[in-house]
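Predict the structure of Phosphoribosylglycinamide formyltransferase.
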Amino acid sequence: TSIAVMASGRGTNLKVILDAVKAGDCPVDVSLVIADKGDAEALNIARIAGVEHVVHVNPKDYSGREQFDAECADLLDKHGCQWIVLAGYMRILSSAFVRRFRGRIINIHPSILPAFAGAKAVEDALLYGVKVSGCTVHLVDEVLDGGAILAQAIVPVFDDDTRDTLHARIQIEEHKIYPATLKRMVEEGFSIEGRRVIWAGKQ
Ligand code: GRF
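Done. Here is the predicted structure for Phosphoribosylglycinamide formyltransferase.
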């Protein structure tokens, strides 16, 4: 199964996915990595791991989100990517992009959705004063951080937490559930009933 990873930042989730693939723990082939930022560490991680196609698509070269997304979409199709894995990808996808790859885009978000959607999830959870938080792997639809939930993991929130300490604790869980969920998607498969993901059961 050929997948693409789209990232904007440090790329630690990309790294653990590539490590899992290499270790034989995740039966996918990361054939394409796209970053929208030229200095994204994710690009280096992909190159070092030997990903075949590593591309910086610069939003400045396009007249708007639709054109930018159309370029990314063409790349994804050209390389036959079955799944599109967002890993710290900080751009909101256009609805045309979401429609084109409906049910094939997944994201990881640093909160227990539906609480704290949006770009400041860790900070918002801290400010709200919740005592547990965590991360969510979910399908992407037109609603920001709103698609069906594939997996979640929780962590405690401590009184002396800062955004960075809480985020670091959440990322430890992200790094476990993202490769594990990808593996399960590919090996086991699922269907959707309403909002619920029904795993197919081991074949
Ligand atoms: C993660 O916390 C993820 O939940 C959020 O962005 C962050 C990406 O981290 N969507 P990294 O770039 O994979 O380290």
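The chain has two domains: 1-101, 107-203.
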